[in-house]
Design brief:
heterodimer, A: about 325 residues, alpha/beta, 8-stranded parallel beta sheet, 13 helices, about 10% strand, B: about 475 residues, 15 helices, about 15% strand
Chain lengths: ~325, ~475
């Protein structure tokens, strides 16, 4: 399979025609979001658990493992990050398994904005993208001017993708229009001088949105505001990506494309550590949104430790034996 | 490249299937008095699984006599002692659940995903639940000293062979009765494995007797003068003849018969979960479920949205080898049942309803029917009135809650119904007006040993499960 991350499609002209009314005013936006079909938590969780029982073996497993590797946003978001650490991670993302050069490379390396330039340089010519968390990640608690400057800096430093966090405080207090306008403003800040634009991923922090109804509303809000991707979480809180929350977001992007013709990607992040978990997510993508989303262009895993488990499973499939953690690199 | 799931078959190696099986009478396996046998066939491959002794009148005579002899000692045991046996059976069922799940999938055609995750856990749960009642009968609300009835003659269907056995045998034994049970002729094997479990548990001889056979054996059992209680799950037609047989006798009767459950989707429903509930309601167990939600009543204002989502979902259902862990829909239980489903579906088309099924390749051997949807169905169509007992959903529409209730109740049956709405007050008011034994809200086909189950009108009488299920086996 190809491990090349495809180029992003330009924005469809006339995007979101028919939804202008929904965002015409704060009250219209509120009415629209609260008019979305409700989510029954018990049913949603049962569906996610049911998809988790699919048994993926042999050829299907080999396909899923390579696909999952190619979808990883290999991430380091530590206060102690250094240029050396970031360069090591870039090398790991480029050649995940030094013993098998057929192993696909990851989709992107995800770093803080001040490390974007380092990553950009280290990844030159690999086809791997640089993703940068901006907008006062992970809390999102800063003045809008600061968030926009944060974004512009990251884009200027070469970030191909911006992972922004929504203002959960504004969302939970019902100020949907504030969130909407902030996403739009950040999207504008993603513009480069040559007229191209960094790709915008909008992080909800599902654990802090608390209810499934809120996750569905936030999905639509972000997509109406121009998100290219919607992402579950920062990975910095107690509850990060969950199978039901991701399933719900996959339903939202599926319904959004049916309504507008615009396809939006989904990125679960935080807490996905094993190949088994990753395969369950891919099954969910396949059966909920459909195989149009089964590519790094439309689905990503935000993870740091997942890659090594995928590599160990990959080695197991090709050799028939478990090799152990010393047979994959630590970076 | 699409994500194709490679086959993930459960191993048959765990199952030790003998070439032939006998009747289980008085703690022993025995041949039929007249030496008759029949074959049990796997509906997914038409492979002969085993030859089974076929019970006749003489065998019914022997089995009832054995149950009568055993009744004296069994009913005299302290409840706690009976409970011990039931707990032991429940634990063995759990220990052997993988083996039994494989057997049930092979013999019935239902997917291993369901036998493994639904049937077997529920079977064990029923024995655990009624084991707990065995020493508490005096506190069940039927007076200080409720007495068992005597010998229970039980006839069960082929759709949930082991689960229906547990619904019948567990409360009967807990209450102190002894049992003669006839499994269906297309699915006798798991009941015979259960007979082995009774021996493994050291259950006294004659307390449980299993008579594989056809309708003639069932009729003889029901008519036998020394049977005190008749319990039947199956078709309304057979239920009627049983009611005629026992009319005027002292026998107690419980009948769980057919259904044509309405699954009502209001415009404020959680649509994605409602679609799951619709799928679960009609395609669970290939639609071989008496409480299947076979009539979808959808509010006109959300009809298109619900139908689009339903069709998209149906296209992801995987039909095929029941032993593949990824199979959602297995085989139709028998050629006769397949013929009946085919005939009724043809009637739906002939009467003007629009038929739709997702593209799916059906295996060449065995009995198969693709999950099917009929839109434009009205109350006047046969497919809206008759129980199809297969993976065929009829979609009707309504405009107001009153119309939904009227249409839901406009059926000779009354076993189950479903309501989908985010509005609690609407759920309560509609549930109150539905004439159905079970009403599910924002879910469907959920079973639990503590919850009574049974019907109104032609869906039968009596309740199974819960404290109410004990009542059918006690002199109260």
């Amino acid at each position: 399979m190809s491990s090349v991350v495809p180029a992003y499609a330009p924005d469809a002209p006339g995007r979101l025609a028919g939804f202008a009314d929904a965002t015409a005013s704060a009250s219209a936006l509120r009415r629209f979001l609260h008019g979305l079909p409700g989510v029954d938590a018990v049913g949603l969780e049962a569906r996610a658990a049911g998809l988790g029982t699919r048994s993926i073996k042999t050829t299907a497993k080999a396909y899923a493992i390579d696909l999952a590797i190619s979808m990883i946003d290999l991430t380091t978001l530590e206060g102690a990050d250094t240029a050396g650490k970031v360069r090591a991670l870039c090398a790991k993302g480029t050649y995940p398994d030094p013993t098998d050069r057929r192993t696909p490379h990851v989709a992107a390396i995800c770093v803080y904005p001040d490390m974007a330039a380092v990553a950009k340089e280290a990844l030159a010519g690999t086809g791997i993208r640089v993703a940068s968390v901006a907008t006062a990640f992970p809390s999102g608690r800063a003045a809008r001017a600061v968030k926009l400057a944060d974004t512009a800096e990251a884009v200027a430093a070469g970030a191909d993708e911006i992972d922004m966090v929504v203002d959960r405080g504004a969302f939970l207090s019902g100020r949907y229009m504030d969130v909407f306008e902030e996403i739009q403003a950040v999207k504008e800040a993603c513009a480069r001088e040559d007229g191209s634009r960094a790709h915008l991923k909008v992080i909800f922090e599902n654990g802090e949105l608390a209810t499934y109804d809120n996750i569905r509303r936030c999905s639509w809000l972000a997509m109406l505001a121009g998100a290219d991707f919607i992402k579950t979480s920062t990975g910095k809180v107690a509850v990060n990506a969950t199978p039901p929350g991701t399933l719900l977001m996959l339903e939202a992007v599926r319904d959004f494309r049916a309504a507008t013709g615009v396809q939006v990607g989904v990125k679960p992040a935080g807490g996905i550590r094993t190949a088994k978990d990753a395969v369950k997510y891919l099954v969910t993508v396949n059966e909920i949104a459909g195989d149009d989303w089964l590519s790094p262009e439309w689905f990503r895993f935000g993870a740091s430790s997942l890659l090594n488990d995928l590599l160990m499973q990959r080695q197991k499939l090709s050799t028939g034996r478990y090799s152990g953690p010393d047979y994959v690199t630590v970076d | 490249m699409a994500f194709e799931y490679a086959p993930a078959p459960e191993s048959r190696a765990i199952l030790d299937l003998a070439p032939s099986y006998g009747l289980f009478i008085d703690g022993e396996f025995a041949e039929a008095a007249d030496g008759a046998v029949f074959k049990s066939v796997s509906p997914s491959s038409e492979e002969v699984l085993a030859e089974v002794a076929r019970a006749g009148e003489a065998d019914v005579e022997r089995a009832v006599a054995a149950a009568r002899r055993a009744f004296g000692t069994w009913s005299a045991l302290p409840g706690a002692e009976r409970g011990k046996y039931l707990f032991r059976i429940a634990r063995i069922l759990q220990e052997r659940s993988r083996e039994l799940a494989v057997l049930e999938s092979l013999d019935n055609g239902k997917p291993i995903r369901e036998t493994r995750d639904i049937d077997l856990p529920l079977v064990a749960a029923h024995f655990f639940y009624y084991a707990g009642w065995a020493d508490k009968l005096a506190y069940a609300g039927y007076g200080p000293d409720p007495r068992p009835l005597g010998v229970a003659g039980q006839v069960i269907p082929w759709n949930f062979p082991l689960l229906m056995l547990s619904w019948k045998i567990a409360p009967a034994l807990a209450a102190g009765n002894t049992v003669v049970l006839k499994p269906a002729e297309t699915t006798p094997l798991s009941a015979l494995f259960f007979a082995d479990i009774c021996r493994q548990a050291g259950l006294p001889r004659g307390v449980v007797n299993i008579l594989p056979g056809y309708g003639d054996a069932g009729a003889a059992l029901v008519a036998h003068p020394d049977v005190d209680k008749v319990a039947f799950t199956g078709s309304t037609e057979v239920g009627r003849s049983i009611a005629r047989t026992v009319a005027g006798t002292r026998k107690r009767v419980t009948l769980e018969l057919g259904g044509k459950a309405a699954n009502i989707v209001f415009d404020d429903a959680p649509i994605d979960q409602a679609v799951e509930g619709i799928v679960d309601g009609i395609f669970f167990n290939q639609g071989h479920v008496c409480c299947a939600g076979s009539r979808l009543l959808v509010q006109e204002s959300v009809q298109d949205e619900v139908l689009d989502a339903l069709k998209r979902r149906m296209a992801t259902l995987r039909v095929g080898d029941p032993l593949d862990k990824n199979t959602d829909i297995g085989a139709i239980n028998s050629a006769a049942q397949l013929a009946r489903i085919t005939e009724l579906a043809a009637a739906g088309e002939a009467e003007g309803a629009q038929r739709w099924a997702p593209p799916c390749e059906l295996p060449s051997a065995g009995y198969w029917f693709a999950p099917t949807l009929f839109t434009g169905v009205t109350q006047a169509h046969r497919i809206a009135r008759e129980e199809i007992f297969g993976p065929v959903l009829s979609v009707l529409t309504f405009r107001t809650p009153a119309e939904a209730v009227e249409k839901a109740n406009n059926t000779p049956y009354g076993l189950a119904a479903g309501i989908w709405s985010e509005k609690g007050s609407r759920i309560l008011s509609v549930a109150d007006k539905l004439r159905a034994g079970v009403v599910w809200a924002n879910t469907f086909n959920k079973f639990d040993p503590t919850s009574p189950f049974g019907g109104y009108k032609e869906s039968g009488y009596g309740r199974e499960g819960g404290r109410h299920g004990l009542e059918g086996y006690l002199d109260v």
